[in-house]
Amino acid sequence: SWTRPPRARRNAPRRDEEPSWLRFEGRRGPNGGRAREAVKPSTMDNPSTPSAFMKPLPEVPATPPAKLTLNFYVPHNIEFDGAEVDQVQVPATSGDMGVLPGHVPTVVQMRPGVVAVTLNDKEVQKYFVSSGFAFVHADSTTDICAVEAVPVEQLDAEAVKKGLADYQAKLVNAKDDYEKASAQIGIEVCGAMNSALGN
Amino acid sequence: ARRTNDLASVTMSAAANSAAYWRIAGMSYLKYSNMCAEVVRGCLKEPWLTKAKPREAVYMKHTKWADGKPGTPVITEVIPPETKA
Q1: Which residue of B has its CA nearest to A93?
Q2: B25–A178: do the CB atoms touch at under 8 Å?
Q3: Is the alpha carbon torsion for A118, A122, A125, A131 positive or negative?
Q4: SS3 call for B3
Q5: Beta bridge partners of A150
Q6: SS3 label, residue B72
Q7: Is B40 on the interface with A (CB under 8 A)?
Q8: What is the pTM assigned to this prediction?
């Protein structure tokens, strides 16, 4: 005998009333087994990510460039700005490091020591650096940032020796950790200046 | 007693395990770096020594604001120590 067709769900809209872009997942899966229907286009742009606002990174050249581009800054002065040099030797906390064009990108913390810049094959300029950081980028741009960088000729050997003795005495008389550390800083820097001056 | 989780105590306990002597003593890198610079400035030869003196001076004024009103300003002034005559 005749059987009634299955009753539609109580709250389901009738087929012709349902917006074409709104679909319910039926028992047969996405689209309820119906052919794919058009999605109503959105009027909003996709959200931007921070990388959309970044400048593109400098290209890594296939062969290392002939010279290193050096930027050497201290807060109150610019020692080198985009200068083309052959080599830079940097006193890192993990040891002395020589940077040639094509050096692997690195970030190093510098200890008090001498930065030696080899301008042409012969001319070497030495700066005593109090501490800071050196960055080598993929395109062989080297950035050296320090609080104080003085040419080694500007250091006073007598003052360095006197300072070393003073700080050693302060270390012995230090009352707490902070004073001890301050004295150790003095000894470290004066010792480095001493060796930079060749003593 | 409640264990504190503030940055200073966490850093100190971490520093005590493996860090530079100045970090263990409670100095930040900025403090260490500026102290190194002071030592270097004190060992310069004459014309550059006087030129470096203004760099030693520090003048800061902090004012804490609360409820839209300024509190008492705190002035931090570091005058460079007298150099050898």
Answers
A1: B20
A2: yes
A3: positive
A4: coil
A5: A128
A6: strand
A7: yes
A8: 0.72
